[in-house]
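Following the same procedure, backbone shapes were mapped to integers, as reproduced here:
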Amino acid sequence: MAFLEELQKQPPYKKKIIIWAVLIVLGALMLLLWGINFRKKITSFQKEDFSNDFNVSDLKAKMDRASSFEIPGIDEESAKKLEEEMNNDIKKLEQEQNQQNGPQL
């Protein structure tokens, strides 16, 4: 209790210095503990367990199947029909817009 009373009596600038010092020490301690834990995880990492847990070989097979997928082609006649339909639709939209907006000068 006497320690807290002494802190309360300190001027604000000293209180700020004490708070920042405590925060820096705690932050450094947490960073150190995180680094130690990270190092342990990296050294204990087993590549074989990882590939078994996530079925890496199955993933490779799926990717091979996906890369062999082919997009079907379209013949010229169908392409021309689609182009004509698109042009007709564009003309209709332009006519509708002109009717809504009125004649342009």
Summary: The CA atoms of residues 47 and 66 lie 25 Å apart. The chain has a mean pLDDT of 85. The helical segments are 2-9, 12-43, 47-53, 56-67, 76-101. The chain is about 80% helix and 0% strand.
